[in-house]
Specification:
The structure is a homodimer of 223-residue chains.
Chain A (H helix, E strand, L loop, with lengths): L2 H14 L12 H8 L3 H13 L3 E4 L3 E4 L4 H12 L4 H23 L4 H14 L5 H17 L4 H10 L2 H11 L4 H17 L3 H21 L2
Antiparallel strand pairs in A: 1-2
Chain A binds a DNA duplex (30 and 30 nucleotides) through helix 3.
InterPro entries (chains A, B): GntR_C, TF_FadR/GntR_C, Tscrpt_reg_HTH_GntR, WH-like_DNA-bd_sf, WH_DNA-bd_sf
Organism (chains A, B): Streptomyces griseorubiginosus
Pfam families (chains A, B): FCD (PF07729), GntR (PF00392)
Chain lengths: 223, 223
DNA sequence: TGTGCTGAGACATCGGACGTCTCAGCACAG
DNA sequence: CTGTGCTGAGACGTCCGATGTCTCAGCACA
């Protein structure tokens, strides 16, 4: 195995074993390189790789630190990966979302706070009836993220964020807005919100399913 | 932004835009470095980072290639990230699995081939009644992977693989095997298989839910 | 025709030099 | 005494050039 790969493993082990804890600072590059028995250049490749997936945080002029290792942070890397997928696998991602989103929405129905409900309502009101594509994409993202956050599972939240990130959604919406989908989407959002307000778990789940399924159906017919 | 980060973005763009396709070979390091306007060392950091998450495949003495970009390959990186999570978030990962696994099992019920069913049955028979921990972990992984593969959604399959990889499962099983969980698990596996044989979507979904929930319950009580 | 050698090309690794950035600590003005 | 601004040490950022190692295509020979 290449020395850089070894270094990646060793740093990983140091963190997993607890020798390095979240927020800890690593020895300076030259020291760490000496400890692990490789050159600074090779070590830097390892550090760079770990920093791309948000394990390490390098601050020029300061030092290198272990990140908080929050699921939220680590799963962010997922969206980077998802960006590489082409249209033919978008459907599969959407199918996964169709499984997760209704479940998350149902979970939220029994846990969401009045405050959150009001925030979601205000957001829908602010959007109006004929938003631009960018506004709609942003609002759609915010709306669903707000709900999933209320599910109380941060892993689930980050996963959904990664799976249906801006890029994916934009790609879908680019075509979708040409139909009557805009008003239907807004209507469905309101229905979901109403179900949440009623604390109606099953209604929330069903509306979320309908919501995703309608997108999926459109996408399937247009590919 | 650092030159290396720019390079990562540029290489990503080249792939996403289609200038570089899966399987394509990149220009040699020195050339690419010159094209992107940075040194070979810095470029190498970018390449290493992208190879860690399976976007690029570097072969010493040959060249650097774009991988197949299969969802399966890319989501492999997920398990690397999951390894960093500590016990307190394992429950959240399990909760996500509790959502996905029943859905995947239900999907498999209507699509799985006779051949696959026989393979799963043979695997269960081979395991016997009192397997070792390692055998059980491996068998458990294989069993569920086999089912999820039959769901026909490769993204779902890779995602599940990443979320409940060897490390996570081993961690859970280490404690779980001390109880009567072994025989109960084997029994549940057989029940799931029977439901699949009957093409009984709902029974399959329910057994899968029960299966995960029992693990979750044990885990929750022992933390 | 098949085997084995060989050299070109590409990645692997290293060590050192220099630039840039951050932060703590000191000096000075208010 | 307090707050501002400078300054220098330390750490990361970047680059260069040299050398080692590996892969593969192509040639020579049996």
């Amino acid at each position: 195995m290449a020395v850089t790969d070894e270094a990646i493993e060793k740093i990983k082990d140091m963190i997993v074993s607890g020798a390095l804890r979240p927020g800890d600072r690593l020895p300076k590059e030259s020291e760490l390189a000496a400890d692990l028995g490789l050159s600074r250049n090779s070590l830097r490749e390892a550090v760079r790789a770990l920093s791309l997936i948000r394990i390490l945080d390098v601050r020029q002029g300061d030092g290198t630190y272990v990140t908080s290792l929050d699921p939220q942070l680590l799963l962010e890397a997922l969206s980077f990966v998802v960006d590489f997928h082409r249209d033919d696998t978008v459907l599969e991602f959407l199918a996964v979302r169709r499984i997760l989103e209704p479940a998350a929405t149902a979970m939220a129905a029994s846990r969401i706070s009045e405050q959150q409900l009001d925030a979601l309502g205000a957001q829908l009101d602010k959007l109006g009836d004929s938003p631009s594509v960018e506004e709609l994409v942003a609002a759609d993202l915010d709306f669903h993220r707000g709900i999933v956050q209320s599910s109380g599972n941060s892993v689930l939240c980050s996963l959904m964020d990664g799976l249906s990130g801006p890029t994916t959604r934009a790609r879908i919406w680019r075509g979708l807005t040409q139909e009557d989908a805009v008003s239907r989407t807004l209507h469905e959002h309101r229905a979901i919100l109403a179900a949440l307000r009623d604390r109606d778990t099953e209604a929330a789940r069903s509306w979320a399913t309908v919501h995703i399924a309608s997108v999926e159906q459109w996408l399937r017919s247009s590919l």
